[in-house]
Fold this sequence. Notes:
GO terms for molecular function: nucleic acid binding. By secondary structure, the protein is mainly α. It folds into four domains: 2-37; 63-132, no CATH class; 134-261, no CATH class; 263-376, no CATH class. The protein is 64% helix and 0% strand. The chain contains 22 helices and no strands. The protein has helices at 2-16, 18-24, 27-38, 60-67, 71-82, 86-95, 104-116, 121-126, 135-147, 152-155, 163-179, 186-193, 198-207, 216-229, 245-261, 268-276, 280-289, 298-310, 315-320, 329-341, 349-352, 356-376. α9 (135-147) runs parallel beside α11.
Amino acid sequence: MSRNLARCLMRNLLKQNNYVCMRLLPQQLVKRYEHTKKNYALMQNDNTETTMDYQEVKTYREFLNDNVIGHNYSVRTLMNLLDIRRETAIKFTIKWPIFNKLTKPALLKNYQLLRSAGVFKSTIRQNVESLADTPENIQSKVKSLKKVKLEINYGIPLLRLSALELMNFSSTTMKDRSLQPNYRNRIEYLAAKFNCHVSTICVLVCTQPDILSIKMAKIVEITEFLLAQRAGIKEIKPWFIRCPISIIERREEKKINWNTIVGPDTTLEEHIAKVMDCDLHSATSLLYRSPDIKSLSIVKLTKMLQFLHSTGYTIHDLYRAPTIVHRLEDSIRRNYEKWTAAGIGHPNISTLIMSQKRFEEKLQEEIAKSKSSNIFS
């Protein structure tokens, strides 16, 4: 009993005054206590060397915060890292779900890699998606952009592409320089030819990454053709580079036909109003009802409108059945001649667009009605 009371007393004293307890405790117990204390904090007069960096020691909660992944954690990290609003961070995490799979240290490393490569913080804020990848892929992408000698602040939109695509781009750049030695890469070549900024081409290339894998000889050929022909394209898009020349020639032919039939300063509404002999408001209403008319060949549309107007159909008849302009003119003309040759009057415009079988049935019905009415009359 006395031993238990003594131990309890010593234990309480140990919590309040270590020095007194060390004087009263046996020597063996004191040494054991000093040994355990050294594991937690070194004495000021202790010269024992250690390799532990106490500034790097993290609590368990800090460890969890650094290694946890999820939507809320990625949003919070982007807000603190780039000084952006919560709504902006949420928008990017929804658009780029890979953010939700990156830990806080991974995002910090991505940011440090871009900053060390010379990317401005304002540029990263405008292109938050450049952080949406693993640190290894970000490092590979930065290395590829350096190989092609592209200013990284202008070429940062290309980081949306995969690391493999940029590696292939860097490998083909050496061949490109042999064809176009005045330009360091095809991005600068396209920017110079189309008279726009390098960053604009980079943004457009992200939507059509096949441009990076096309042979430079074909890019030069089609680009020179576009600039020489001036095919009436208000804004040249990069996908034209992938088009066969036959498609671009067809576009040039459409422009020539338009200038010949309609005129360079005449709108489609004005042309329809002129051919159908109606007011401009009626022609505009027709295009509003059937906007597919705008995609028709101007040669085909003009021939159909001239035929309908010559046979007595008005813009109001055309408004009730606008799909007639999409049919073959020969088929419509043949049905009209069959109907009028039967002597049963002027056919309704909706009758002319029936299927051939239904048109023949309708024609026979009207002929029978006409004969029966003649008998009774």
